[in-house]
Design a protein that fits this description.
about 15% strand; about 120 residues; alpha/beta; Oxidized Rhodanese, domain 1; about 40% helix
């Protein structure tokens, strides 16, 4: 399959923490979006993540326009908000958006055991 066809296929709506870690380690070019509130982001976040709280998403969605064709992985605390945000972004035409199942809490359990949990 030509690369252009592979890129046009929508990925599953959810991805795993392990898959995100592999992409980060491979220096894959994707947008890592933290949709938790700013105070949660300030407590703990993944390196390289951009903070865009779910509560401000509709007002600030234009900030993502330059990423429309790029893969986006959204995460939150446990995966509920990020699933909603990923679904909404797909409805807006960001077809390569995924939610990280289990959120940053699952990341702390599986990937970075020393990470602060709340």
């Amino acid at each position: 399959m030509p690369a252009s066809d592979a890129e046009s296929v929508e990925p599953p709506l959810e991805t795993t923490c392990a898959a995100v870690k592999e992409r980060l380690d491979a220096d894959d070019q994707f947008v890592l979006l933290d949709c938790r509130e700013q105070n949660e982001y300030d407590l703990v976040h993944l390196d390289g993540a951009t903070s865009l709280p779910m509560s401000t998403l509709t007002d600030q969605a234009g900030e993502l326009e330059s990423f429309r064709e790029r893969p986006i992985v959204v995460y939150c605390h446990h995966g509920g908000r990020s699933f909603q945000v990923a679904t909404w972004l797909r409805q807006q035409g960001f077809s390569r958006t995924q939610s990280m199942a289990g959120g940053i809490d699952q990341w702390a359990l599986e990937i970075e055991p020393g990470m602060m949990r709340y």
